[in-house]
Amino acid sequence: MNQELISIHEVAKSVTEAMETRHSIREYETTPIPEEVLKRIFETSLRSPSWKNSQPWKVHIISGAKKEKLADSLTKAAMESSPAPETNWPESYPSDAKKRMFDLGMKIYGVAGIDRKDKEARDQFMLRNFSFFGAPTAVFITSKFDLNFFVGIDLGCFLQSVLLLAREEGLGTCPQAALGAFPQVVRNELNLPNDEKVIMGLSIGYPKPNSDLNRFHTPREESSDLLRFY
User: Fold this and answer.
1) How far apart are CA 145 and CA 87, in angstroms?
2) 64-72 LR contacts (CB < 8 Å, sep 24+)
3) Which residues, in sequence order, are CB contacts of 187 under 8 Å at separation 6+?
4) Are residues 197 and 153 in contact, defined by beta-carbon separation less than 8 angstroms?
5) Is residue 163 within 8 Å of 157, Cβ to Cβ?
6) What are the sequence ranges of the domains in the chain?
7) Which pLDDT does position 170 carry in this prediction?
8) Is the pTM of this model over 0.85?
9) Which CATH number among 3.40.50.720, 3.60.15.10, 3.40.50.300, 3.40.109.10 corresponds to the domain 8-87+130-212?
10) Which spans in 46-94 are helix H?
11) Integer angstrom CA distances of residue 80 from 10, 67, 77, 194
12) Residue 55: is it exposed, middle or buried by C-beta count within 10 angstroms (0-12/13-18/19+)?
């Protein structure tokens, strides 16, 4: 799809349009999301499939002063301590995936005007994860299930539903593994039980329309390299 044709601030009129235009948004308007819109997205997303209808997710949607307090606590933790996620972050990737990941990082830094050698600027950019990139609402996905491959698939199905339903409402999102980096902070702020694991989160809101970062549409491999029809 021609990047110039991608609209990230209008509603998506079909699932196909939502898929083709969705990408991670890293600059948001401060406009609050109406409660009825949030309810529509997240109540519909509960129809996502899961292993034997196990529904291994719990969802925490945070806005307003509560979100700001959580952002402050997470940013402080990120500046003062090392990540301690409750799920193992992947460490090993095939060489072709590593190249895609490196290229993506370089392109995002370039659009953001950050020199790769400028560690301080890169660190500040990373810290924006914990203030939800300025989005009016933050979301955390938790689970009391023992985490395994199939629970991961279920959570991924749920997350994708949220991302596409948000596009249907003209909203942008950024799914963030980083929001699972300091689970105890989230647990304390949201008063979660100890057996409820903090998996990840996402930022959601109205994209700033004139943002270079928001216009950046991540590339994909050619379909001929990834699809086989028999």
Assistant:
1) 12
2) 64/32, 66/189, 67/132, 67/136, 67/137, 67/138, 69/189, 70/138, 70/185, 70/186, 70/189, 70/190, 71/130, 71/131, 71/132, 71/138
3) 194, 196, 198
4) no
5) no
6) 8-87+130-212
7) 94
8) yes
9) 3.40.109.10
10) 64-80
11) 39, 20, 5, 23
12) middle
| Dihedral over Cα of 158, 164, 129, 94: its sign | positive
Nearest to 34 by CA among 71, 63, 67, 59: 63
DSSP-assigned letter for residue 22? -
Which residue type sits at 48?
A: S
pLDDT digits over 102-150, tens only?
888 888 888 888 888 888 998 899 999 999 999 999 999 999 999 999 9
Rounded Cα–Cα distance for residues 58 and 196 (Å): 9
What residue type is assigned to position 204 of the chain? I
